[in-house]
Amino acid sequence: MTEVKGMVFNRVSLRMIWPILFLLVLASNFALYRTSIGISILPANTHPVVLGSLIDLTIVAPILFLAWQQKLSWKYLLTLMAGGLIVARFMIPMQYLTPFKTLTLIGFVVEAAFVLLEILLLLTLFKYLPEIIRSVKKSPLPHLFSFSNAVDQRVRKHPIIQAFCSEMLMFYYAFCLWKKEPAHKGHTFTLHRKSSLIAFHVMMIHAIVVETLGVHWWLHDKSLILSLLLLVVNFYSIVLFLGDIQAMRFNPLQIDNDCMYVSLGLMKRMEIRWKDIDEIIEDRSTLEKKLTKNTIDFVARDFEKAYPDVIIKLKLPQEATLLMGLKKNYEQVAIRVDEPEKFKELLKSKL
Fold first, then answer.
1. What is the C-alpha separation between 294 and 301, in angstroms, rounded?
2. Average confidence (pLDDT) per 10 residues, the chain, 351 residues
3. Cα–Cα distance between 225 and 217 in angstroms, integer?
4. In the chain, what are the domain boundaries?
5. What is the C-alpha separation between 11 and 5, in angstroms, rounded?
């Protein structure tokens, strides 16, 4: 047991080396050009030093970042290298960077090319949007799932598409459903009614509004840009909380013949097929323990401590969708519903 813990600790420690080295590269180059001590040690001929900094920012730092994130992708690497050239353009004073100015402009060109590709992908999404909306209206699934499925069937999967669709869902739930009432059909179970999660969200919205009115006007005289940034962030936060409230109300846990669709607002959702379930854990002592990192929880939490009603152990790690369309695999799913006994009975009947 001690050996296993030691191996895990060594693995975690080894992975933490990469972000430390990455930050060390950035900090050392920043200190070299943006502090009085760094400038004082620069030689008369700064060309070799600047070239070394460019290598640090465009090759060494991206490789360290990739090692940290454990992502091996040529496109990702090129994006980071171009970003390194842009960082160099702002980090290194122009008086030292002038001989390499053309090289740093390549970073802006590459990033602009990637942005153009992303825009073309979004235009493809808008092309199929009417067809996607028709498919969502016909689907019996919760909109959080039917919309994502319809998009995946018609548009190539891409992080920018997933993030944009997540934002579309947020604005849809925040502004388009206030005149409607949830109509739950079939085997559905709510997750929020026996908690104060929605009340907590409303309290947060109220706090953000008060903070915006107070701090924004004070900051407006100090820094117009900061006050506008704060206003945008606060507006986005309010829309996110409103969308999350409506998404919880209109998307209860739904059980079908082949699978279960479970979501907790806009923050996370997952499709669990019956054939992928290995075990249902109902032991109270296990449920009240701290959840492991490979467990995703659909538990409406507020001020009080809440525990799941069941933990579903999967045969293989399955994918869950998080905020902004991010994907992550989990081995266990912890769920708490408002009608636990009825839910457990139906769950066992499906298995």
1. 19
2. 47 73 91 87 88 90 85 78 87 86 83 82 85 89 88 82 88 89 81 89 90 76 78 91 93 90 93 92 88 91 83 92 89 92 88 76
3. 12
4. 2-115, 253-350
5. 10
